[in-house]
Amino acid sequence: MYRTHKNGELRLANKGEKVTLCGWVQKSRDLGGLTFVDLRDRYGITQLVFNMDTNAELCEKARTLGREFVIQAEGVVAERENKNKNIPTGEIEIDVTQLTILKEAKLPPFTIEDETDGGEELRMQYRFLDLRRNPLKNNLLLRNKVSLETRKYMDSLEFIEIETPYLIKSTPEGARDFVVPSRMNEGEFYALPQSPQTFKQLLMVSGYDRYYQIVKCFRDEDLRADRQPEFTQIDCEMAFVEQEDILQTFEGLVKHLFKTVKDIEFEHDFPRMTYAEAMKRYGSDKPDIRFGMEFNEMNKLVQGKGFQVFDSAELIIGITAKDCAGYSRKQLDKLTKWVQRPQIGAKGLIYVKCNEDGTYKSSVDKFYNQEELAKWAELCQAEKGDLILVLSGETDKVRTQMNELRLHMGNELGLRNPNEFKPLWVLDFPLLEWDEETKRYHAMHHPFTSPKPEDMDLIDTDPGKVRANAYDLAINGVEVGGGSIRIHDKSVQSRMFDLLGFTKEEAEAQFGFLMNAFEYGAPPHGGIAFGFDRLCSIFGGSDSIRDYIAFPKNNSGRDVMIDAPSPIAEEQLKELNLRLREVEVKG
Ligand code: ASP
Prior knowledge:
By secondary structure, the protein is of the alpha+beta class. The protein is built from 17 helices and 22 strands. The protein has an 8-stranded mixed beta sheet, sandwiched between helices. A 5-stranded mixed β-barrel has the order 1-2-3-5-4. The chain has a 5-stranded antiparallel beta sheet with strand order 12-13-16-14-15. A hairpin with a 2-residue loop joins strand 1 (18-31) and strand 2 (34-41). The site of aspartic acid has 9 residues, from strand 21 and strand 22.
């Protein structure tokens, strides 16, 4: 037996016991006749002591130990003279009688401490060492807890976990596919699933009316802090359900996770808002409702007074920043520059200061008198001491810009408390989204989403107005899940493919299998998928999902530890019958 105990385990009650421990050398110190070694494993740290007077040879050996050496130590549990209240094993130490070096270690390129001296890139390259540190270890433990509790909850409701294949035919979820060449089928490719969408729907046709899977999905998208080319979903589907059944079942899951993982209980149902309302009030389909600063549409009040910028705008929105009337010229200039950055793209920013003396000072004093500005303040519920910020332009653009400004102000003013959690269901998403570039409709969710029956007659006359039975769950401004009631009727499904610009033949070639299956008894069904990595990062209080994935990719989609992606051998290409066009391989 390599070890009798783990390093977080021994207490004063074990005094006098003969034990054997294994682990990594966190650090060692020589103090006169004594050498102390902190021995670490994933469970904790135990102090080992070596005594020069009683066993000089062993003590000499201990002095050769370097950081991160892997050792085995046998000895007796003793009470410590200088107790360490900060660690659970801080009252004891091990009087070592035998020491075995299991493996020497090179000096790690950064310190394996909670606060390390290693930069991001270096730590990614040595991820296996970074994972030894507590912050990352705790993230993986949290992740494990979230998956375990998910499985418990789903099991309690008779959901069964069924695996679906990774080598499939493309499923359109709006991103690019990763593809895999097939050796046995020359010239043909598999796609890696963007989600198991079509398979879970087929499982409904097969009669598995409650399915779930904690599953990898693959999307070839540009990356950000909260995106990875491969990520994990809690993917779910149910048959014989309406939207309400799904919302309740999965609100239950999220509440269960908050309770078991964070010990947070939600007394009330999660609030709900339609997509249209979310866009109008917050300019976002995933509003952060931890703070107010809602949009006020000001067209009626501000147009027709000779101010060209407003007169020519489709929409004028004002928000109120509480207690910010004291903003200096410099601060306002900075804010204006901020909204003018290309990422935001606003032309300018109008402000009104609601002074403590009841007067108003605005950047458009030329066009609006005090009485008029007082009306603005009334509309925007601004009081003395507040600052009104106004943007104008095309409806969609100005909403998006104002959303950014609102979130920015929320951050600046410390209104986005990381310890507060505000889930929100957003309902009734539009079925379709017009794409200016390609001049056609795209499915806002995916092509299998059912239109609202009451909007069905708009499908031919005004497809852009059709709402879907589609819903998202947002928490603190982050989309954590989304799904829909599905089309389970072949004729509606082919109408949908029409609208999306597929010819009959294309639709047949790509989704014939699904439409065919629908002809063999498809139950009404619907589902949802949660971004598992995102949920973990929210529970852990971080913006970056990377910290919750053992081996993530960097911003360019690279795994710098194993150096992937990488070129493959000419032999492999030949076997796949592939030739690279204009090969210009880096590195
Ligand atoms: N497949 C969808 C997604 O990945 C989720 C769903 O509709 O259930 O977003």
